[in-house]
Amino acid sequence: MRLNGEISSGEDEKEKQPGTTTFSGQKVVVGYALTSKKKKSFLQPSFTSLARNKGIIFVAVDLKKPLPEQGPFDIILHKLSGEEWDDIIEDYRQKHPEVTVLDPPDAIRHLHNRQSMLQDVVDLNLSDCHGKVSIPRQLVITKEKDPSSIPYEVTKAGMKLPLVAKPLVVDGTAKSHELFLAYDEFSLSELEPPLVLQEFVNHGGLLFKIYVVGETIKVVRRFSLPNISKRELSKVAGVFRFPRVSCAAASADDADLDPNIAVTLHFQMIYT
Ligand SMILES: Nc1ncnc2c1ncn2[C@@H]1O[C@H](COP(=O)(O)OP(=O)(O)OP(=O)(O)O)[C@@H](O)[C@H]1O
Ligand SMILES: O=P(O)(O)O[C@H]1[C@H](O)[C@H](O)[C@H](OP(=O)(O)O)[C@@H](OP(=O)(O)O)[C@@H]1O
């Protein structure tokens, strides 16, 4: 069974959005393969009961049993890392073309790397009289590089301080979200490659997260790192780990947006 849009249960016809299909009463079974952390943060009881009211049932995939012996599923929703799992899900996808796999490993592989994940934004080459869409200047430090060579690489690349240092690999682990702010290049030799180093972009301490599922787009505002002045940069040295400043708890949806920030944001959208 293939789904071509958001399921609605029918009773909220007045909120019918383009691209939705009226739920015909047929149950949709979603097999999920998630880490316990992700299951806890994503499959909240309020969400699963809302889904159930719309005829969408979430069933845990038993990772100790062969996937083909489970189900039947209409959708497989997964976010597990590792080649072994990729092979399992890819093999299942080939044998069950009637099941929607979210997402096919090949379709999301580039998102597990902080360099390749932004390449799509670069390739958009979006720029017009209203502004442009771009990414920060960045430098990849591969795992083969000796950390002591990072300062030289940064200087050679002409990267402007401060820099945000991020693990190159994004695999859903807490470690893949350990970010650092470097006020000088020498302290970067304390970090562990593989890394991606991005020039810090002042953005008024506010960012927009855009979620896209099919035709549905949701934009939320989140607090972010404050601007760093040249004066602060001249007075501070070292590399500092910072917390997940823009997580869901840092919602700025109700914040009074400084008009100046709105103007700045209007002219340059930067994806990090
Ligand atoms: N180049 C940059 N310039 C300024 N701030 C940045 C830059 N890159 C990241 N940040 C800040 O660090 C935060 C986290 O960055 P990023 O989204 O790349 O990491 P992440 O671990 O994927 O975050 P999450 O998964 O929690 O959204 C951003 O919300 C922003 O506040
Ligand atoms: O701001 P949100 O909550 O959307 O940030 C998400 C982020 O977009 C990713 O979905 C993270 O998932 P992983 O990359 O798999 O870690 C989420 O991390 P988690 O630790 O909460 O699952 C962020 O919350």
TrEMBL record:
Its cofactor is Mg(2+). GO terms for cellular component: cytoplasm. It comes from the Eukaryota. Residues 29-108 form the Inositol-tetrakisphosphate 1-kinase N-terminal domain. Keywords: ATP-binding, Kinase, Magnesium, Metal-binding, Nucleotide-binding, Transferase. Belongs to the ITPK1 family. This is Inositol-tetrakisphosphate 1-kinase 3 isoform X3. Monomer. The lineage of its organism: Eukaryota, Viridiplantae, Streptophyta, Embryophyta, Tracheophyta. One of its GO terms (biological process) is inositol trisphosphate metabolic process. ATP binds at residues 114, 166, 198-209, 224. Residues 1-22 are annotated as: Disordered. 1D-myo-inositol 1,3,4-trisphosphate binds at K38, K79, H177, K209.
